[in-house]
Design a protein that fits this description.
The chain is of the alpha/beta class. The protein has 17 helices and nine strands. Helix 4 runs antiparallel to helix 9 and helix 13 crosses helix 16. The chain is globular. It starts with 5 loop residues before the first strand and ends with a helix.
């Protein structure tokens, strides 16, 4: 593992020590790779390679011939991925750096200078590695992101259905809350089949619909334009196709999850304590994510209020089984999730504490989970409303997501099951504190009244 920066005392003062003498730097681009090694390893120590697969193997062979053990590179688009994985497979310790943290401070800006700068910084241990999950978790992450993309695309087809019906003056979406529910789907598919009689269509609605059959029939009196009926039919067919792809994607994700759980668990997780949570969402995965997450982390993360099966599925792919070991502290994990303020202090004064404007998938997932607890009676819901009363709704979402991140990290790191006390004070304790504070203020007012009298 690459070492971090160290300072040494010399006769001339403090100096940085070279902690990674066998380090190299790679400037990554779409069509070429600029690779730099120390000058004593090769007469031509800064070389340019093309980015084809055969050239990537040449890079690995050259680095081995130069005695390189650790390599630093920037996370440039998706172009870094193939060389990163290949170097890992070849046994190199690869450090993926944030481009903002390794910005070239020299006068010239060339690929050769960037590669040399990366190599120099890495040799002094000044390149901080970016978090990356293992290879199996990365495959699950790719599949879960693809699944989310399919669901988003299917959602556009729902909008196309609604638009086509609105243009025909069919007001089904105003009388039925969900056109993809049992009643909505039965009516829409009957329309596509050629039934345009409002009364007979209204009979297809479930008896539990709040709107009466007469109201539903009125909403189905449309123009029945042929072009719009054609668009409606194709939108329904496309929606069905995308949902079939989602089901197929979930089967592949489950296959990878079984493989991952068997690789990590090996009988160490123990018996799972089920939460009995029921999903409220139509697009919730059909996979038993609670079981697989428990096999990976040894604790049931789904017990955290606000965390559902869909969010849990995404977290497995984004974090992997050993994320708690890759972050030294809980604060570093929350900072990586972009849920901690970036405090800027100058002259002993705090001048800014805004959260950086960058997107982190884990942070976004936890923010969505935090927003779902706003009306819950759970301890997390109480915490959300307390934060909202202080700073507003948006700040409460970030604060609650930060609390969730700390709880998840603590559970996995310390192998502790969820406990409501992890959230903080209960509602009863908060009320008791308010009573004590109010009583103290009342005593002070009585003392002042006695002095005045």
């Amino acid at each position: 593992m690459a070492k971090v920066a160290r300072k040494i005392k010399t006769d001339k003062g403090l100096r940085l020590k070279i902690v990674n003498p066998d380090a190299a730097g790679i400037d990554v681009a779409d069509g070429e790779m600029q690779v730099c090694v120390p000058e004593d390893r090769d007469s031509e120590n800064n070389r340019r390679f093309e980015s084809f697969t055969c050239d990537l193997h040449k890079i690995c062979a050259w680095l081995k011939a130069c005695g390189i053990k650790t390599v630093a590179m920037e996370a440039t688009g998706v172009y870094w991925l193939n060389i990163f994985l290949l170097l890992q497979d070849e046994g190199f310790d690869v450090v993926l750096a944030n481009p903002l943290q390794v910005k070239n401070l020299t006068d010239k800006k060339t690929d050769e200078a960037d590669a040399e700068w990366l190599m120099l910084m890495h040799s002094y241990g000044m390149v901080r590695p970016s978090f990356q999950p293992d290879s199996v978790a990365r495959r699950i992450r790719n599949m879960t992101r693809h699944r989310s993309s399919l669901i988003t695309t299917a959602g556009r087809e729902i909008q196309h259905m609604q638009k086509a019906m609105e243009q025909m003056n069919i007001k089904l979406s105003t009388v039925i809350s969900d056109i993809l529910g049992k009643s909505g789907q039965a009516i829409i598919r009957s329309i596509i089949a050629g039934n345009h009689d409002p009364v007979s269509l209204a009979r297809l609605a479930d008896v539990r619909c709040k709107a009466s059959r007469e109201t539903i029939a009125k909403s189905l009196e449309g123009t029945w334009d042929e072009d719009l009926l054609f668009i409606l039919k194709q939108s329904v067919e496309l929606y069905d196709t995308y949902m079939e792809k989602v089901a197929s994607c979930e089967q592949e994700i489950e296959r990878l999850m079984k493989q991952y759980a068997a690789q990590v668990d090996q009988g160490k997780a123990g018996q799972i304590i089920r939460t009995q949570k029921k999903s409220k969402y139509k697009n919730a995965p059909s996979i038993d994510t609670e079981k697989y997450a428990h096999a990976l982390w040894g604790v049931n993360i789904m017990a955290v209020p606000g965390l559902g099966s869909g969010a849990l599925l995404q977290l497995i792919g984004e974090l992997g089984h050993d994320f708690a070991d890759k972050f030294d502290t809980c604060s570093k994990f929350c900072r990586w999730c972009n849920l901690s303020p970036n405090n800027k202090i100058t002259g002993g004064k705090l001048i800014s504490s805004h959260i950086p404007k960058r997107k982190n998938p884990v942070g976004q997932i936890l923010r969505q989970c935090a927003n779902t607890v706003k009306d819950e009676k759970s301890e997390m819901g109480i915490y959300f409303r307390r934060m909202k009363s202080r700073n507003g709704h948006m700040q409460a979402i970030v604060a609650t997501a930060h609390k969730m991140a700390r709880i998840i990290y603590t559970m996995v790191k310390q192998h502790k099951e969820y406990n409501p006390n992890m959230v903080g004070c209960s509602e009863k304790e908060i009320l008791e504190r308010r009573i004590a504070k109010t009583t103290m203020q009342l005593q002070k007012l009585n003392e002042k009244l006695g002095k005045v009298g």
